[in-house]
Amino acid sequence: QTQLVESGGGLVQPGGSLRLSCAAPGSIFRPSVMGWHRQAPGKQRELVATITSGGSTNYADSVKGRFTISRDNAKNKVYLQMNNLKPEDTAVYYCNTDGTYGYASWGRGTQVTVSS
Fold it and tell me: What is the pLDDT of residue 39?
């Protein structure tokens, strides 16, 4: 595998849940702080959650208490569990590094739409 591949997005009602998955090349995944980013229409991409190789996590205030990031170091995968979704969470979600040492090539992302 040579690129980041996100999956798990979809259409969900407000208050619903989704679990996003990302498969990453080992050369990117293993040494890196991994993160989930999102970009809503007309807005800049924002970093919403990060996780170190040791499992320490950090969240943007807008998602704290609702989103949970995790990683499986054996499978080179990172996940984002999203609960109590709100319409303002609607965006294309991407995984990548946290950007401290630059980004890998961006994947196609996965669309999350929160609407009744």
Answer: 98
Contact, 101 vs 113, CB < 8 A? Answer: no
Q: For residue 47, count CB atoms less than 10 angstroms from its CB and return exposed for 0-12, middle for 13-18, buried for 19 or more.
A: middle
Asked whether 14 and 85 are in contact (CB, 8 A), the reply is yes
Residue 78's contacts (CB-CB under 8 Å, 6 or more residues apart) are 21, 22, 24, 29, 34, 36, 51, 69, 70, 71, 72, 95
Instruction: Provide the pairing of β-strand 10-12 with 110-114.
Output: parallel
How would you list the strands of the sheet with 34-39, edge to edge? 10-12, 110-114, 91-97, 34-39, 46-51, 57-59
The β-bridge partners of 12 are: 114
pLDDT category at 26 given cuts 50, 70, 90 is: confident
Are residues 17 and 104 in contact, defined by beta-carbon separation less than 8 angstroms?
no
Residue 69, strand partner residues: 80
Sign (positive/negative) of CA torsion 86, 90, 95, 97? negative
